[in-house]
Design goal:
With 159 residues, this protein is mostly helical. Helices cover 86% and strands 0% of the residues.
Amino acid sequence: MEFFFSLFQNIFLYSQANYFISILFFFFFLLCYSIFSLPGLLIFTSMSGYLFGIYFGFIISILSLTFGSLVFFILSKILFKYFFIKYYEKYAQNINKYISNSTVEYLIIFRLVPGLPLMVQNMILSLLDISIFKFLLATFIGFTPIILTSVIIGKKIMN
């Protein structure tokens, strides 16, 4: 247990000594982590609150999560269109028929509901016929409460 406390202390001291390099490194780390939609993202967003405070930690976390999800969304949309075209057209038409009137509201609610892993959420959203702007807006707004809560928890742990 003492090993983990000393490790966190060393990471904190390094990030305070090299603040801007640490912000860039952490941003690209979270970006790559969310591109692959790996589990445990909330632990790293809490760590951003621990290392950089509430404001910078939130900005780093939400931007990297939003753009990483966008890259995964685009890649899975391409994968579904070219390799699973029969299933893609069938499910995409059915889902788009139901949510065509208020797409952004449904997407925000979908992002707000906890439980589904990020990878599953992005795969489901790649079946929809939505624009990149709607995806970015829904992801940013939908993930804001949980990311902000996680960053605040990380800041409280530091205190």
